[in-house]
Structure of Sigma-54-dependent Fis family transcriptional regulator:
Amino acid sequence: MTPQSAEGGVRGHVLVVDDELSMREYLELLLHREGYVVTSVPAVKPACELLAQDGVDLVISDMKLGTGSGLDVLRAARARPEPPEVVLITAYGSPAAAVEAMREGAYDYICKPFDNEELRLLVQKALEKRLLRQENRGLRARLLPGLGMAVGQSSRMQEVWALVEKVAPSRSTVLVTGESGTGKELVARAIHMRGSRAAQPFMPFNCAALNEGTLESELFGHMKGAFTGAMQDRAGLLVSAGEGTVMLDEVGEMPLATQVKLLRVLQEKKVKPVGSAAEVPFKARVIAATNRRLEAEVKAGRFREDLFYRLNVITLELPPLRERAGDISLLANHFLARMAEELGRPALRFAPETLVLLERYAFPGNVRQLQNMVERAATLSDSDLLGPTTLPPAVRGESEPVARTGDGNEPRLGGGFNLERHLDDSERRYLLAALKQAGGVKTRAAELLGLSFRSFRYRLAKHGLTDDLEPGGSVDA
């Protein structure tokens, strides 16, 4: 696996291929200063000989190599069992050359003259992608044998996993739906890992986290000079994922204008980078996920009907945890085993009465809430036996519980009860509590409530709470 520096930056072995001695020496010096191991060669043949030995994490090659070409180096690199990333450099850049390089599997394409900082960031991101691919392979090896156990054995989840097995080998677009915290990303990863793309990157992308312009640049890429700050051509996520999988999380939050472009992209299997007249093909599989009912969003005019049908080729609906209570103990013990390993406390275990309390709780935050609850209990407990006192007060019944439907515990109502006011008051209290716990950082508060930032901001405005800061800012709660 690619080593890392003490500062956390990805470091590795870089092969420089250029027929100009001055350029090789320049790149060697620049990359050595960044902590990389660098080998440089002047031609295609010695580059291919080095690539045949493995151990190269990244190739930086000139496109013009005497009688050879950087594309020859790229093809040799892509033929390796664990191919290094490849960045091509040229003084003769053109959209056609960029398209050819991307079609052949290059990570990115940069034109001379280039800024040192541009190249440094490009190298770092390319090596981060390689590291992510290696981690995905390791994760697949660890999770595949017991993936169903890790998620649940209820009949509802067995149906989900049976469908995962069927759709994983295909190229079909999959739409994963379910409440926040039900494990949509885990299911998307399972589809990726159980198919032929498992050795390629899995790239989740939150469609609600960026504004329209930045969203399109990240997904489709952009050309140098397309907008302020676009210092070089950049491949978007769909292209840079190669033959891997791109998960479009919170796709229901995507702006309508971007929905139009995404529909065309999915139909044509080509992207048009921002500021470019040329289209670039991509091979990545797309999995979309949302906690919204897209049929209702279509009727309300907030989501395009044609895009909905394009995404909705195969739908996987994840049940909320309250509808598969039989999985709660299984999941709790699974998360506790992971925490015990991380903390070096193999004797950690739940008391029986603790598991009973967990099974009775509604878990409005679903599996994610349960996982956080187990992490809290394991981290704060001085004893290896996790008793009821390690659970939050709400789970122990010491504060107003979240009502569960169909369990015989219906609330008692008196005259003059106003449901809307009650729900509004409860929502406002939860918003303020989340802001307080998050130290006023709204993006973190939204995560604590299992909401997208856009939805969280809407609720703040609805209750007249301060909402004039950036997502990372704070609110006077």
